[in-house]
Amino acid sequence: MSQPVLLVDKNDGIVTLTLNRPAVLNALSRELRAALVHTFHELCHDPTVGVVILTGAGRAFCAGLDLKELSQDNTAFDEQASPTGAGDIVRAMATFDRPIIGAINGYAITGGFELALACDILIAASTARFADTHARVGVMPGWGLSQKLSRVIGIYRAKELSLTGNYLSAEQAAAWGLVNRVVAPEDLLPTCQALAHDILSCDPEIVRNLKRVMDEGFATTLAAGLTIEAEAWRAHARRVTPETIAQRRAAVQQRGRAQSA
Question: What sign has the CA pseudo-torsion 42, 44, 47, 48?
Fold first, then answer.
């Protein structure tokens, strides 16, 4: 019996999604793309889910689109380009309103690099390697890499990566601000799980609103972003009560005492 291409593990509000095509470096076949889109849509409607961790099986996070499959199917690019296409993973991730932690365990190449950039927090194992090989393969990026990467690491560094197709080590990715930190491979999932538990200890409504406001503001100017934040603050202020503030204050104090003990 064949293994599913996407492993889904739910545990105490944390869902770990593992791309499970290790023999082909977790290349994104049509089946895997559809599974990811379907799963994120399902998780959107599951109130018990607070955080998603996305990682890969074997020595790769994701090697991008399955080029062998694409070379045999001339409809695959049309499917990806369609605004409502079943293969638009990044759109499905963008509409998911809770944090996504990318546990980058190995190679994150081209479409896999774009998949990483669609996450909210990136933790890399020391074995992680990033590369944008669109120019080498002869295709244009369609999941945001040409715009997101320069906003994260700067236009000159982004051009160096995209115009050469060269690899970027985990350590250099951290130095350039692409990933939050680099850990030993055996510490990757425990580190991501600890972060997920920290997120779950916060107010879930505020976590969702903060993610939305930060993403919307990041995509526009500072002035427009400040307006987005002000509107969100006013909407929240109309609903907040002294009792809810007192409850959150007590929770913060309790966590502080626990961490200093």
Answer: positive
Both 165 and 134 in one domain: the answer is yes
Transcribe 48-91 into DSSP letters: T--EEEEEESTTEEE--B-HHHHHH-TTHHHHHHSTT-TT-HHH
Please indicate, yes or no, whether residues 164 and 209 belong to a single structural domain of this protein.
no
Q: Given a cut of 70, is residue 7 above it in pLDDT?
A: yes
Enumerate the H helices of the chain as residue ranges: 30-44, 67-72, 76-81, 89-94, 111-117, 134-137, 145-153, 155-164, 170-175, 188-200, 204-218, 222-237, 242-260
Q: What is the pLDDT of residues 12-56, one digit of tens each?
A: 999 999 999 999 999 999 999 999 999 999 999 999 999 999 999
Phi, psi dihedral angles at 126 (to 5 degrees) = -65, -15
With cut-offs at 50, 70 and 90, classify the pLDDT of residue 259: low
Distance CA(178)–CA(98), nearest Å, equals: 20
Domain residues for 211?
Answer: 204-260
Q: State the total domains in the chain.
A: 2
User: Is 0.85 surpassed by the pTM of this model?
Assistant: yes
Question: Does residue 104 lie in a domain region?
Answer: yes
Alpha carbon distance 63, 130 (integer Å) = 10
The verdict on 151 and 243 lying in the same domain is: no
CB neighbourhood size of 53 (10 A): 24
The Cα–Cα gap between 145 and 71 comes to 22
CB atoms within 10 A of CB 260: 6
Across 134-154, b (16+ Cβ under 10 Å) vs e yields beebebebbbebbebbbebbe
Q: Is residue 1 in a domain? A: no
| CA–CA distance, 209 with 158 (Å, rounded to integer) | 29
